[in-house]
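Troubleshooting log. The previous structure file for this entry was overwritten by mistake, so regenerating from the original sequence record. Sequence copied from the archived sheet and checked twice against the printout by T.R.
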Amino acid sequence: MAITAEMVKTLREKTGAGMMECKAALTEAGGSMEQAVDILRKRGLAQAARKAGRATGEGLIGSYVSPDQHTGVLVEVRCESDFVARTPDFQALIKDVATDIAQAGDGASAAWVADPAGPVQTKVAATIAKLGENIGVDRFVRLSGDGVVAVYIHLGGKLGVLVELAGVAGGAAQHEAVQTLAKELAMQVAAATPQYASRGEVPADVLEHERAIYRGQLEGQNKPANVIDKIIEGKLGAFYQQVVLPDQPSIRDPKVSVSQLIADASKASGATLSVRRFARLKVGESV
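Regenerated output below.
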């Protein structure tokens, strides 16, 4: 049975467990809500179980970047109050969980995070016992490859971004222009919320949907078909500027595109840089 986002949300509201734990329990239970509740209750230690009904409306985004900048992690850890989110114990938990995910590599999955005997839930349960609030590890993203990863944390820890640059070889990775670009792009993603790393990533059905809207806007104007096509492509250019990272105007200088920033950094570093991928997590934001 397919596990839907609505099912995960319902189970989370019933139990107070994190989204990943809920999805793993529903998968194990074959979609049965009652069995999933029982699975989560059985997995939880006594201290955690007594807190499980409490809503986790606060929390922070934690991060980890390996010394070689080839691996980066973002993780959302939720709790009940902002007061607890600011405690040294909670912040230490976030740092430990991000490090555990990085070290687990490809083995870091929703089920692995939810494992009561695993490193993450062992630390979570101990922190719940100490701080007296329900805590859940809701989401995480791990980017790892041969590129350069940069992280940016904003809004006092409520928003986090990872960006991975490709085309970095040899000593270019540590070039000032590359390092600066990676950080600038992470800030760009935080502020401008792009959806895609390149035009090629935009799904065909999304583009067709946009074209259909533009055609509807031009109905009744009696323009030649070739003129209408040119107008539509022009409108698509504006659409790309909204959703594709390299097409966006820079948040620092709207007269300069992100693609120009990338080209400038490529020239300065002698590398052929591009954005391989990025991730953006905000506390409480829907998946």
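The longest strand covers residues 71-79. Archived copy saved in two places this time.
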